[in-house]
């Protein structure tokens, strides 16, 4: 680059062109990760961390990783001590709480600690007189000193005076130049621009610089107008792409992903994210004649959701009354099915054929000639059912010990044959797996079970929807407040007595969420999916009950449009600004007090009741009346009569369906586990099928039903005794 073109000052007298070799700026990552702890570099890293936006990355995991990397670049725990890191955090907060006029003044100094900031402020208090002009002069001088290079102490007095004039002009013009650069391209490198302007000032004043050739001193400083005009000329000489490459080289990943996943983001996106970014090296002092730019007024956001109108009255539901007749249960009663026949309503011939076919297919893919039959598969299932009744420390003991149950096992199937079949147990074709479905290897069996569960489910008015856990200590999923807290989370829809109608294992990116209403969230879409499953049996006014994880006013409105009634507890942040009495004030009222409001457009009621605790409920079908009188306890003392709204009573009666199912399953759970990760879910489906069969048995034989243990033993003994292969 020719010095005559690079600098606005006069040309050398000898006419020779002096070539200036400019060292390429380091990249953003190198600059933030370098060992240097200059205040300018730390300020760059700090601002990048503080102004990071969630929209810059593709998901929450990437956002967290990005923030961790940016914080690491700012605080540098590998080089800084804990005391130094605390000093940086305290310094940042201290500068934040300062008044704006003091912030603008203090930021002109390169601060390394909070003590430096205090010293600067104390000196300001001592030096500042009654005149406000004196403070302004002090600010410009201090800002000029902040731009003095390392060579300043080695210069003569005349050189210092000349450079001081140039540096003060820099203070008044650097903000304007930085603003113009952003306005043109939205991209700039503060470190590069500051260093180049300092080089111009040094060359004009005759001060030696490490990156340029020493020139003769100049008697006149560079005017501010000429400096700004030169910057505009320099920008115009380069095309947009060239200018971008020059000034974004050290910040190429500053607005994207530090892991370089966002490298291909276009320049417009980077420009948008860097707009308005201000560094501590920029001066806030502007020329008096510079007009202040006012930000454009923001247009108020127009919401497409109609405003909610709440009024204090009881709800007026318009659902039809329940009048459905369960003809399916009547047919089961007339057929008088035994326990095995009831269990095989769910594990039917189609299910057994599916398991046998996929197991043989998987074994052949592993070059094993298994050739398992349906008869042998029933024996395997009989052993699994028996393990819930007769527990052994290891499964080989079912063939070693001598008693009635063990003799059945030995006569039904050999241990080696059982181990071989159990190790190749499979439910899907590995060559046709859906990679987006975490449970694709179980999906055919899950669909078969859900189809049979719904087909023979009792037709009832009330259903419960909640989450449960399938025990597995290798899982990282945790659910507090459940008997089993570690395992696979399972979404369940049951009757009020615990019959499982529909279930779906939890996965982070659920396959059911495609094409669903995003406003309802994961929980709301799951409830809507369960409502659609129930409506497949007929357009009846079902009533669903669920907890606060699922409930929202939007969900209640969506269910009402489907003709489904619903009641559930609701969280405070989902009440759509309903003016209920706050929970703190309600707690101060006497027990039995309740407050309620109805949304006029959708006819949805919200109620907050003070019982054993404070509970908030939402419903589209049940209101306050009739109010019940119940007993309550407070401080171990019984309160004989308190008021209870009707929707609170209904929710208490219907919300325990999933809990009852969990209680039944926990009594005789399959104890034999395979080495495959999904074996616990297979055992879970076997236990649920047994629980549902027992529910139907009790409904068909209300006065002469078997206990669950006896019912399970009958099924296990039948499979072991009637499917024994004596030739084996």
Which descriptors apply to this entry?
single chain; 728 residues; alpha+beta; DNA breaking-rejoining enzymes fold; ten-stranded mixed beta sheet; two-stranded antiparallel sheet; 28 helices; 46% helix; globular; disordered N terminus; SCAN box domain-containing protein; SCAN_sf; nucleus
Task: Explain what the structure shows.
The protein is an alpha+beta fold. It has a domain at 41-107: DNA breaking-rejoining enzymes (DNA breaking-rejoining enzymes fold, Orthogonal Bundle). The protein contains 28 helices and twelve strands. Strands 1, 2, 3, 4, 5, 6, 7, 8, 9 and 10 form a ten-stranded mixed beta sheet that branches. Strands 11-12 form a two-stranded antiparallel sheet. The protein is globular and about 105 Å long. 32% of the residues are buried.
- Mind telling me the CATH superfamily name of one domain? DNA breaking-rejoining enzymes
The CATH architecture of one domain comes to Orthogonal Bundle
Let me know the largest β-sheet.
10 strands, mixed
Report the radius of gyration as a whole number of Å. 38 Å
Fraction in helix: 40-55%
Total beta strands: 12
Distance between the termini: 92 Å
Class from secondary-structure proportions: alpha+beta
Count of runs of 4 or more consecutive helical residues: 28
What CATH first level of one domain would be assigned?
A: Mainly Alpha
GO molecular function: sequence-specific DNA binding
InterPro entries: PGBD (IPR029526), PiggyBac_TE-derived (IPR052638), SCAN_dom (IPR003309), SCAN_sf (IPR038269)
Subcellular location: Nucleus
Protein name: SCAN box domain-containing protein
């Amino acid at each position: 680059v020719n010095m005559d073109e690079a600098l606005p000052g006069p040309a050398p007298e000898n006419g020779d062109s002096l070539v200036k070799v400019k060292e390429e700026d380091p990249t953003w990552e190198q600059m933030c990760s370098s060992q240097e702890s200059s205040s300018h570099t730390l300020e760059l890293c700090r601002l990048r961390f503080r102004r990071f936006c969630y929209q810059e990355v593709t998901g929450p995991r990437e956002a967290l990783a990005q923030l961790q990397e940016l914080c690491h670049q700012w605080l540098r725990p590998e080089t800084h001590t804990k005391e130094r890191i605390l000093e940086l955090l305290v310094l940042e907060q201290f500068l934040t709480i300062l008044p704006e006029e003091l912030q603008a003044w203090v930021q002109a100094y390169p601060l390394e600690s909070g003590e430096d900031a205090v010293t600067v402020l104390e000196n300001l208090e001592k030096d500042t007189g009654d005149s406000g002009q004196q403070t302004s002069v002090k600010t410009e001088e201090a800002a000029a000193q902040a731009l003095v290079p390392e060579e300043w102490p080695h210069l003569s007095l005349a050189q210092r005076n000349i450079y001081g004039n140039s540096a003060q002009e820099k203070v008044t013009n650097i903000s304007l130049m930085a603003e113009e650069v952003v306005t043109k391209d939205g991209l700039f490198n503060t470190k590069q621009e500051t260093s180049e302007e300092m080089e111009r000032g040094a060359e004009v004043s005759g001060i030696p610089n490490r990156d340029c050739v020493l020139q003769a001193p100049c008697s006149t400083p560079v005017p501010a107008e000429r400096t700004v005009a030169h910057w505009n000329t320099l920008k115009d000489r380069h095309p947009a792409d060239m200018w971008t490459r020059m000034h974004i080289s050290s910040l190429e990943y500053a607005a994207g992903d530090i892991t370089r996943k966002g490298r291909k983001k276009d320049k417009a996106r980077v420009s948008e994210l860097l707009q308005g970014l201000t560094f501590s090296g920029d001066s806030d002092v502007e020329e008096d004649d510079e007009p202040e730019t006012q930000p454009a007024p923001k247009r108020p956001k127009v919401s497409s959701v109609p405003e909610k109108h709440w009024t204090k009255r009881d709800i007026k539901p318009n659902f039809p009354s329940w009048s459905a007749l369960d003809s399916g249960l009547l047919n089961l009663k007339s057929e008088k099915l035994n326990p095995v026949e009831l269990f095989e309503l769910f594990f039917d011939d189609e299910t057994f054929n599916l398991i046998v076919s996929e197991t043989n297919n998987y074994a052949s893919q592993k070059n094993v000639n298994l050739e398992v039959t349906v008869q042998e598969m029933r024996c395997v299932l009989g052993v699994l059912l028996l393990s819930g009744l007769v527990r052994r420390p290891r499964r080989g003991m079912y063939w070693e010990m001598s008693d009635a149950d063990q003799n059945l096992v030995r006569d039904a199937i050999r241990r080696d044959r059982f181990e071989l079949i159990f190790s190749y147990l499979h439910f899907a074709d590995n060559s046709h797996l859906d990679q987006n479905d975490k449970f694709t290897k179980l999906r055919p069996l899950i669909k078969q079970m859900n189809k049979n569960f719904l087909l023979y489910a009792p037709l009832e008015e009330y259903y419960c929807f909640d989450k449960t856990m399938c025990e597995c200590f290798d899982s990282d999923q945790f659910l507090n407040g459940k008997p089993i807290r570690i395992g696979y989370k399972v979404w369940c829809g049951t009757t009020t007595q615990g019959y499982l109608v529909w279930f779906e294992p939890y996965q982070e990116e659920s396959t059911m969420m495609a094409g669903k209403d995003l406003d309802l969230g994961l929980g709301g879409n799951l409830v809507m999916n369960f409502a659609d499953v129930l409506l497949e049996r007929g357009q009846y006014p079902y009533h669903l009950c669920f907890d606060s994880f699922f409930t929202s006013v939007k969900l209640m409105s969506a269910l009402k449009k489907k003709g489904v009634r619903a009641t559930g507890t609701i969280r405070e942040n989902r009440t759509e600004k309903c003016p209920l009495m706050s929970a703190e004030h309600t707690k101060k009222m006497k027990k039995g007090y309740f407050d309620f409001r109805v949304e006029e457009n959708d006819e949805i009621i919200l109620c907050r009741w003070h019982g054993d605790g404070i509970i908030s409920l939402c419903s589209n079908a049940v209101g306050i009346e009739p109010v019940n009188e119940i007993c309550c306890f407070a401080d171990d003392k019984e309160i004989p009569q308190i008021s209870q709204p009707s929707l609170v009573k209904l929710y208490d009666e219907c919300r325990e369906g999933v809990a009852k199912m969990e209680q039944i399953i926990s009594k005789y759970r399959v104890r034999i586990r395979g080495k495959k990760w999904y074996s616990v879910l297979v055992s879970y489906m076997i236990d649920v099928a047994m629980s549902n069969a027992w529910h139907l048995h009790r409904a068909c034989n209300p006065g002469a039903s078997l206990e669950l243990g006896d019912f399970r033993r009958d099924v296990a003994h039948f499979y072991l005794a009637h499917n024994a292969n004596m030739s084996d």
